Amino acid sequence: MAGKQKFVSEITDMDKDFAQWYTDVVKKAELVDYASVKGCMIIKPYGYAIWELIQQQLDKRFKETGHVNVYMPMFIPESLLEKEKDHVEGFAPEVAWVTHGGKEQLAERLCVRPTSETLFCDHYAKEIQSHRDLPKLYNQWCSVVRWEKTTRPFLRTTEFLWQEGHTAHATAEEAEEETVRMLNVYSEFCENVLAIPVVKGQKTEKEKFAGAKATYTIESLMHDGKALQSGTSHNFGDGFAKAFGIQYTDKNNQLQYVHQTSWGMTTRLIGALIMVHGDNSGLVLPPAIAPVQVMIIPVAQHKEGVLDKAYELKAKLQEVGRIKVDDSDKSPGWKFSEHEMKGVPVRLEIGPKDIEANQAVLARRDTGEKVVVSLDHIQEEVTKLLTAMQKEMLEKARNHREAHTYSATTMEEFTKTVEETPGFVKAMWCGDEACENKIKEETGATSRCMPFEQEEIAKTCICCGKPAKKMVYWGKAY
Amino acid sequence: MAGKQKFVSEITDMDKDFAQWYTDVVKKAELVDYASVKGCMIIKPYGYAIWELIQQQLDKRFKETGHVNVYMPMFIPESLLEKEKDHVEGFAPEVAWVTHGGKEQLAERLCVRPTSETLFCDHYAKEIQSHRDLPKLYNQWCSVVRWEKTTRPFLRTTEFLWQEGHTAHATAEEAEEETVRMLNVYSEFCENVLAIPVVKGQKTEKEKFAGAKATYTIESLMHDGKALQSGTSHNFGDGFAKAFGIQYTDKNNQLQYVHQTSWGMTTRLIGALIMVHGDNSGLVLPPAIAPVQVMIIPVAQHKEGVLDKAYELKAKLQEVGRIKVDDSDKSPGWKFSEHEMKGVPVRLEIGPKDIEANQAVLARRDTGEKVVVSLDHIQEEVTKLLTAMQKEMLEKARNHREAHTYSATTMEEFTKTVEETPGFVKAMWCGDEACENKIKEETGATSRCMPFEQEEIAKTCICCGKPAKKMVYWGKAY
Q1: Is residue B285 part of a domain?
Q2: Which residues pair with B111 in a beta bridge?
Q3: Which of A27, A302, A454, B76 is least surrounded, with the fewest CB atoms within 10 Å of its CB?
Q4: Which residues of chain B lie closer than 8 angstroms to A145, CB-CB?
Q5: Of B36, B43, B112, the CB nearest to A77
Q6: What is the CATH number of the domain that holds A469?
Q7: Which keywords appear in this protein's UniProt record, sorted alphabetically (chains A, B) (predicted)?
């Protein structure tokens, strides 16, 4: 029987083979399964529960900042995709094309949306007439498709889930404010909910979004020292407005083009959670995003009163968090390993001796620390522990990032750092794309962002020696 | 300026041209816009807010009955769709086919999911090994595509939003219980939340879902006397399990096939809301599903203290519902018409004289009734009004349905009823598909369902005169 079986918790050592460790965790923590279509994923109940919490907490922030949700069709006619030159060049090579509906060939091919700028623009051109119609602050939750050659669950998949905000404003200033506002919503969410510290900055011309005037990004650092772009916010200026004819009459009755933004976050964030917080026992979830915050494990549950006490504790603790009792017939040891693998923040052990002593054992997933607490104060103790854990997980991740952020002033130093000590490398840049390309070719590191918080590490570009314009975060990235 | 303009509230008279009235309402209440792809719709903020409330309240019910959410890919390989014979015959003629990814032609065509039975079965075949893995109670929220020839917003669109539950059980009995359980969840939701009464019953062989052993349905009646299939729940037996090889070892270590169900509700429900409750001033929403339950309209809002009082009332009422203040510079008359068109259940008028008298005017959208209430009891009065409205809207809809439910015992009577007094027609049936087809050909009415609550109206089939097996609800339908 299961009670005699051992939970197969062996996963690859993360410091030996991080990629295999990642694959083991997504599988063993029951986050995803592979689908029959290459590059697509099945998001299983536990993985989807994390996504639902991400959605709820982001959506709340979007609504608090005045945004409303809508739904646009999943298909874009080829002619519509082609309306903005840079945009179609960026996306056309990687879209899925629908050519037949039922038994008939379509007069025009439709692509499955890789992103919905063109659909929102087409709609805005009809909806926006007057300055009274502005701003438009729309968001949508949906799935998008990009035909990727190499894929990995959550990090790069042919289909993924995301939200895409699309806004239209009367002035360039308002559009810029919105772009920055949403980047700040993203960074606050990453730090306070996901416990993932981020670097905020601007993408270079080379790395910016197809069709954008400026792309802002938040970049986080994974356990293995590789960077992950975790959210982007784009200022389109009036480029799309001109391509799609989105105009309004201002207060002086003059026709003006609108200024637009878009911003998105995806299921990729689940990949970030795994790679920032995970360890050799599996996933570690910050309490704010954990589908189960406290798993109650009855010890010797066949003994009288143990299960009743476990349910009683659950009822009490539900007022302060998301709580479950594992009353299955697996052994406590099996249960310990299984919920460790799934990254449940706190394990509460309760057995006959604990009940006699009016106490319970609380075990923290991140540090392994165990404390014995009185049942009289169980709500306060659990709340205290979850709060501390949320805070300390962010601190730990920040310390890891600081410890893996380097700076370089010569190409030799840069190359050596990238090779030997993976992480962010801060280095000066002249602003020339040729240098950016050369650095990528020679070291494999890409420009992650020009951080808003600039430092002058040197006077000259690390690559060509010409006067430097910006300090850039570089790194290998997912 | 807007203050001087008149809100264009003229819509087609619903009793003169119901189809045009419907089109006017979806447009003027700002529920949808037409998309660049034929048959697809853009769900605008107000329409989507209704959908979000439907989602929240259904999802809560699914979770309370033990279901969890997952996400399956949107693409189905052609070979997978073909695995269950009846299913592929039912859906293949109306799917969208992806043939190219980026610049390359795919080795195998992929269809955009019209429904996801095949994907869930493929997954279950891998996931289910033992009786310990059962039941599987999965649901997903997503969009699906069916290539429709003639479309109407919400009622029949090429792409629509829905939820699809897919479950697997150890025994035929458990699958049957689940099928009925979810039909009951649907009917309770329709009646208590949407205020739409439904007839519960079973579809005939001809009308059942492609691949199902039995399809149960809830049927509602629109204002014009046409029926709308509002939700279906299917019992698949072990047909899909055999086609996909979904087997488990039971407690006696014997291999068994699972028994499956699926059930779905769609954005079509918004169409039902419009057509059951709407009137010649536009939409009428039951409070439980209204994005704004009370719209506060300040009268003479430029006068000192009026807007402040309106915000104060909003703050107070937010504890009991979804409340907004319309503080735009439109005239009160414009605002009245606009929020009437959008079906806001209660309008609260507050002006200088009301403030002086410590009172407000509450106007009900459904009956037009106005009451003057004291501000001292405003929370209780609003709650009372919303509760009464929710209850009375269901009663009104039920009375309408009763008044438009007829019975017939001869074909002559049947034909006359269908032609002259649109509604449900109850009539006996022998169970033979030939009679069902003949009735459809001659009258345009289809079998809506064999209701669970049977009555013996006559002994013989209305069509052929042979002994009758079932009493059937017939009617023209959307």
Answers
A1: no
A2: B76, B97
A3: A302
A4: 74
A5: B36
A6: 3.30.110.30
A7: Ligase
